[in-house]
Design goal:
374 residues, Phage_Baseplate_Assmbl_Protein, Elongation Factor Tu (Ef-tu), domain 3, Barrel_Baseplate_J-like, 8 helices
């Protein structure tokens, strides 16, 4: 039967439960009872055995979900709340300064749906009336939560045609939103949060930065020597490289964690008041580096269609850490999630690898992926 031990719980398998119930029935009714699978008593034993096995399985899952390192979904969120962490939700993407042209006086109502070449839907946030020159400038928001990209000078199509509207053109690159934080990323942030209470510690500062709203990545370099190190960090100083978040939150988090007398370096200087004194905090923003990927593939079966858009989206979903170089062969596992072909060659920026600086972060955009089918 189910047992609770110092190391957890021990549950019986279905076959063991079935044998135990059969033995119990024979003790009660005698050895001559018919417990064959097609007999009424045998079917009752089978039914009871299955239900007990189901209950054991539910209990085992509940116990597993109480462990934050095994929990998923809402169970993980509940465990993480003990550390003061909340799952980061998805955010909308935005298009600023979109130009609508057509006949003067035409009104485009709020909530009008437009579609781009990637079949992503965007909606107007307010009513827009074309001026005497026959144009209006509006701001659009993605219809769904998530990270969507779109380049300038792209035409959008209206789902419902409005008479008098000729063109809708983007003028700026989309401000990509974000997807809901995955269980894996949330658990990683939870594990890093164990270091938040550390002082004068690189991991402690990184954990504090990663816990800030909208901070996606953080990397802290420290140099405790008397000479400038190979990363350019001066003696007895540290350099925080951050992606996302507000400058004031980042500066305050660094001030609270760093030891007195420790120097700071970075291209960004933010002034703030802390502990009754005026302080200037220096740190860096991660420079995003676009990676061009060229992949040559061949069909496995004749003229089978290849989902090239899926290949591009899969590669664009690859996440890189700050300072992580990009190796072409390591991208093949992302591409292989799409079926129907095999890879003949793959390069990044025309070579096998793309080095990334310690204050840079690589990214792959769908439009930077070239797929050739031979």
């Amino acid at each position: 039967m189910l047992q609770i031990t110092d190391t957890g719980i021990v549950v019986e398998q279905l076959s063991v439960i079935h044998q135990r119930l059969e033995a119990g029935f024979r003790r009660i009714y005698g050895e001559d009872i018919n417990l064959d699978a097609d007999s009424p008593d045998g079917q009752i034993v089978g039914l009871f055995s299955q239900e007990l096995a189901n209950i054991n399985q539910v209990i085992a899952v509940i116990v597993q979900m109480l462990d934050p390192y095994n929990a998923t979904g809402a169970w993980l969120e509940q465990r993480a709340m003990y550390a003061g962490l909340v799952r980061r939700g998805a955010k909308f993407s935005y298009l600023d300064e979109v130009i609508i042209t057509g006949n003067a006086g035409v009104t485009v109502p709020a909530g009008t749906v437009l579609t781009d070449d990637n079949r992503v839907k965007w909606v107007t946030l307010i009513d827009a009336t074309l001026n005497n020159n026959g144009s209006a400038q509006v701001k659009l928001r993605s219809q769904e939560l998530g990270s969507f990209t779109l380049q300038p000078n792209k035409e959008l199509k209206m789902e419902t045609v409005i008479v008098g509207v000729e063109k809708v053109i983007t003028t700026k690159e989309a401000k990509a939103g974000s997807e809901e934080e995955t269980d894996g990323n949330f658990l990683l942030r939870f594990m890093r949060s164990h270091s938040i209470n550390n002082h004068d510690d690189r991991q402690g500062i990184e954990a504090a930065l990663l816990d800030l709203p909208d901070v996606k990545q953080a990397r802290v370099y420290e140099n405790d020597t008397n000479q400038t190190d190979i990363r350019g960090v001066p003696p007895h100083s540290m350099n925080a490289v951050v992606m996302g978040g507000r400058n004031e939150d980042i500066a305050l988090a660094i001030l609270k964690k760093k030891a007195g007398g420790c120097g700071l370096m970075g291209a960004i200087s933010y002034w703030c008041e802390y502990s009754g004194a005026e302080r200037t905090v220096k740190f860096d923003r991660a420079e995003m580096v676009d990676i061009r990927v060229k992949i040559i593939i061949d069909r496995i079966n004749g003229f089978q269609d290849i989902d090239t858009d899926g290949i591009k989206s899969s590669l664009a979903a690859t996440e890189f850490a700050i300072g992580e170089s990009v190796y072409a062969m390591r991208l093949t596992c992302r591409v292989n999630t799409i079926s129907g072909f095999y890879i003949k060659s793959i390069t990044v920026n025309g070579v096998d690898s793309a080095p990334i600086g310690v204050r840079q972060c690589a990214q792959i955009k769908p439009e930077s992926v070239e797929v050739l089918i031979e």
